[in-house]
Write a structure and sequence with these properties.
There is one protein chain. This protein is α+β, with helices and mostly antiparallel strands. The protein has three domains: 15-165 and 318-348, 2-Layer Sandwich (BirA Bifunctional Protein, domain 2), CATH 3.30.930; 178-309, Bira Bifunctional Protein, Domain 2 (BirA Bifunctional Protein, domain 2); 363-452, Rossmann fold (3-Layer(aba) Sandwich). The chain has 19 helices and 16 strands. The chain has helices at 16-35, 49-52, 57-62, 81-85, 87-94, 104-113, 158-173, 185-194, 201-208, 211-214, 216-225, 230-240, 246-256, 261-280, 343-353, 373-388, 402-411, 422-427, 448-452; strands at 39-40, 46-48, 66-68, 95-99, 122-131, 143-152, 178-184, 285-288, 302-308, 317-322, 336-342, 366-368, 393-395, 416-419, 430-434, 440-443. It is elongated.
């Protein structure tokens, strides 16, 4: 008995309807990226591990899928016992490549490698899959698509303003009401400095990033285990939990952290950004969240995180400013800023909210029923003409019973069926059936394109 085929956990097959919906998301997002002057590019699915490791923090490094070297890789491993008892040490000898964890680090590598072929500031967008060896759960997959847009080679805060507009445009077009949380890593650095824990900045950021998911008590416990004193924790949470309007929060933090030059710089950047966002009157809600951290190590300035207002799921978009990511590849002092839309989570949200356009459910606008070879040959000529006019059309491939043919059209959500039998063939007419209303009318074939382009029968 053959074994039932399966796919790896955390990955999915996509049926035609699902692909139509996904392509709608990709098309909507890419059109908006293009409207803002961003150019498309791609990078390979796999990168050298030397490119990926050390850019995402310890947790990120553990989630990178490593690829075994080809050939007799075991013979190249030193035979010392500790190599075979230490998986990290062993993988360093038998794996040189890995699947990309995100699109940002490969983009930084790309910029350095192609610096003489691109113009700065360089505005790019990239829509490709990424892979993470994470525990699969709702809204979290091991293979998923990211839709990234970045500006590199410019320090201007107007770039953050433009990215805010893109976020607002994308979720307005997709009909997903969203809350856009914004913070600044410089402000967070000032908070950690105020708490007397500068030497544990990365650990503090990693813990704060889990605040919404695990709660205050768990985060306090983690930070305490990492060596923060009660006094440090008290100071840290006093600034994380400031309340009031955006303006009030920033004013409060400006006073509390006045001795920190780094925090003051971060606050000024936030004030600039929110001042411009307010003038642009976005459709979605933009809020200042002093507890927003985002766990990736490479962020240095403004950070974004977006959540759907009416759906229970994690972040659907995020990003921020990274001042020296290209520096690790030999090109220092090149600042960039970008955001990434999680297409798979956006899909789940849109499905939950039922906001996909109905017309996506059909591939063809019209199906021609099959009454026999002579009729089918005539239908193919009409179909060819419709396709040249940009109208999707198909012929049922077999001379099956009409109930079966109509059932096929109904399941495919094809809005019209053309009936051309012996009588229509002699008269050079078409009986057009509206599958939604059930009505049908005999028409001249020259009317077909016009009706299918938007008129009703």
């Amino acid at each position: 008995m053959s074994q039932k085929p399966t796919i790896p956990k955390g990955t999915r097959d996509f049926l035609p309807l699902e692909m139509a919906r996904r392509n709608y998301i990709f098309s909507t997002i890419s059109k908006i990226f293009s409207l803002y002057g961003f150019l498309p590019m791609e990078t390979p699915a796999m990168e050298n591990l030397s490119t990926l490791l050390g850019k995402y923090g310890d947790e990120g490094d553990r989630l990178i899928f490593k690829i075994l070297n080809s050939g007799d890789f075991i013979s190249k491993v030193p035979q010392e016992k500790d190599y075979f008892s230490d998986s990290k040490k062993l993988s360093g000898k038998i794996c040189e490549k890995g699947l990309r964890y995100d699109l940002t680090v490969p983009f930084a590598r790309f910029v350095v490698q192609h610096k003489h072929e691109i113009n700065f500031p360089f505005k790019r967008y990239q829509i490709q899959p990424v892979w993470r060896a994470d525990k699969p759960q709702k809204g979290r997959y091991r293979e998923f698509f990211q839709c990234d847009v970045d500006i590199i080679g410019s320090d201007s805060l107007l770039n953050e303003v433009e990215l805010s507009q893109i976020i607002d445009d994308v979720f307005t077009r997709l009909k997903v009401k969203s809350i856009v949380k914004i913070n600044n890593r410089k402000l967070l650095a000032g908070m950690v400095e105020f708490a007397g824990a500068t030497d544990r900045f990365t650990a503090v950021m990693s813990a704060i990033d889990k605040l919404e998911k695990t709660g205050k008590l768990k985060v306090r416990e983690e930070l305490s285990n990492r060596g923060l004193s009660e006094e440090s924790l008290k100071k840290l949470f006093s600034v994380l939990e400031v309340s009031g309007s955006c303006r009030n929060k920033l004013d409060s933090l400006k006073k509390i952290l006045s001795d920190s030059k780094t925090a003051t710089e971060g606050i000024l950047e936030l004030e600039y950004l929110f001042r411009h966002i307010e003038k642009l009157a976005p459709e979605n809600e933009f809020v200042f969240d002093p507890a927003l951290a985002r766990g990736l190590d490479y962020y240095t300035g403004t950070i974004f995180e977006v959540k759907a207002r009416d759906a229970e799921i994690g972040s659907i978009c995020g990003g921020g400013r990274y001042d020296n990511l290209t520096g690790v590849f030999g090109l220092p002092d090149v600042s960039g800023v970008g955001i990434s839309f999680g297409a798979d989570r956006i899909y789940d949200v849109m499905l939950q909210l039922d906001v996909f356009p109905e017309e996506l459910l059909s591939g063809a606008r019209i199906m021609f029923a099959n009454f026999g070879d002579d009729e089918a040959f005539y239908c193919l000529q009409l179909i060819n003409s419709l396709r040249k006019s940009g109208i999707a059309a198909e012929l049922y491939p077999e001379q099956a019973k009409m109930k079966k043919q109509m059932g096929y059209a109904d399941k495919r959500n094809i809005p019209f069926v053309a009936l051309i039998g012996e009588t229509e063939l002699k008269e050079k007419t078409v009986t057009l059936k509206n599958m939604k209303t059930g009505s049908q009318e005999k028409i001249n074939p020259v009317q077909l394109a016009g009706i299918l382009s938007g008129q009703t029968v």
